[in-house]
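Tip: read the tokens left to right.
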């Protein structure tokens, strides 16, 4: 039965991948969802990217966490159920788990099944008293959390890295609104937010000299060849990552070096020479613009930690609890028999 369920899940995932790929590749500006970067090979390549000299976000965020994780843990509070979106290797999470007071549960959520369960196993060995419940899902769409064995005093979402920048303004707002609903009034979000800076720094970060980011981008085509019966010739595509000032974002593209036809799931996809597939947007925020976005989603920024150069930020947000004084006033009015206010 377990083998049957796994096979059925794999078939469903393949059908979803194929549908998403064909939908994007049939657009005037061809696209592929960046969530499909993270098969086992893609996850390993991203871990390599995080060690590159040019790729500042990971080491900068780690520096912020090492300096301020104790403060972050105090903000999050004791007996916390921590849900992590896009958990990957959970390296940053360990800095929090080491400082949280009596955490009730850790729920890593990721689309890369093999990577997710390998990481969860390692964490269970290192944190034997902590319930760890991995969830293999796309956090950008509604998903159910597992039933937790311990009662939590509070729920929080941890969303490290700069992944929030991969979403359009509308999609980021929808995601943050979903976070607010998931954690509920008084719940929290701890999120990594990359900040605007010199475009030359950004372009080097997304197009490194060693070509690891290029390999990461091209691996998306290799994954389609393996899983979707595609026949992309990777040698006929190259990686490009320009800064787009008007949109405040880096865009990652796969560029067709020649006019060609590729096939995906039996369907022909035509490319003109120089035509691109956009595989990722990475928006960069100011502190003001991100606070405005969060507020529209029902979250309020309470604390912000940055590095000295203000290249990156880790931000603590809360869903405002119901106004207790207002509730008390309404209760008092009801007790006096006053008519309700319109």
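Filled-in amino acids:
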């Amino acid at each position: 039965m377990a083998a049957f369920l796994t096979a059925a899940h794999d078939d469903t995932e393949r059908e979803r991948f194929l549908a998403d790929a064909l939908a994007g590749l049939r657009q005037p500006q061809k696209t592929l969802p960046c969530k499909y970067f993270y098969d086992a090979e893609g996850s390993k390549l991203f871990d390599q990217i995080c060690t590159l000299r040019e790729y500042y976000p990971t080491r900068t965020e780690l520096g912020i966490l090492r300096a301020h994780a104790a403060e972050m843990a105090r903000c999050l509070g004791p007996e916390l159920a921590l849900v992590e979106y896009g958990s990957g290797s959970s390296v940053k999470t360990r800095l929090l788990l080491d400082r949280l007071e009596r955490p009730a549960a850790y729920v890593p959520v990721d689309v890369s099944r093999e990577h997710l369960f390998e990481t969860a196993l390692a964490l269970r060995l290192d944190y034997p008293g902590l319930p760890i419940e991995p969830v293999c899902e796309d956090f950008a769409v509604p998903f159910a959390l597992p039933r937790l064995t311990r009662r939590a005093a509070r729920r929080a979402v941890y969303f490290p890295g700069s992944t929030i920048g991969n979403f359009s303004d509308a999609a980021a707002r929808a995601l943050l609104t979903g976070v607010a609903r998931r954690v509920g009034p008084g719940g929290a979000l701890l999120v990594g937010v990359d900040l605007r800076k010199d475009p030359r720094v950004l372009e080097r970060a997304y197009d490194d000299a060693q070509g690891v980011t290029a390999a990461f981008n091209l691996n998306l085509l290799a994954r389609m060849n393996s899983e979707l019966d595609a026949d992309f010739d990777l040698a006929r595509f190259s990686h490009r990552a320009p800064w787009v000032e008007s949109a405040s974002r880096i865009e990652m593209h796969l560029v067709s070096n020649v006019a060609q036809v590729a096939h995906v799931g039996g369907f022909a996809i035509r490319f003109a020479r120089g035509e691109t597939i956009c595989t990722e947007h990475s928006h960069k925020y100011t502190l003001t613009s991100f606070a405005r976005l969060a507020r529209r989603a029902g979250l309020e920024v309470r604390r912000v930690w940055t590095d000295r150069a203000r290249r990156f930020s880790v931000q603590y947000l809360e869903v405002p609890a119901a106004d207790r004084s207002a509730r008390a006033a309404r209760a008092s009015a009801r007790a006096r028999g006053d008519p309700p206010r319109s």
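The two ends are 58 Å apart (CA to CA). Residues 2-31+222-283 form one domain.
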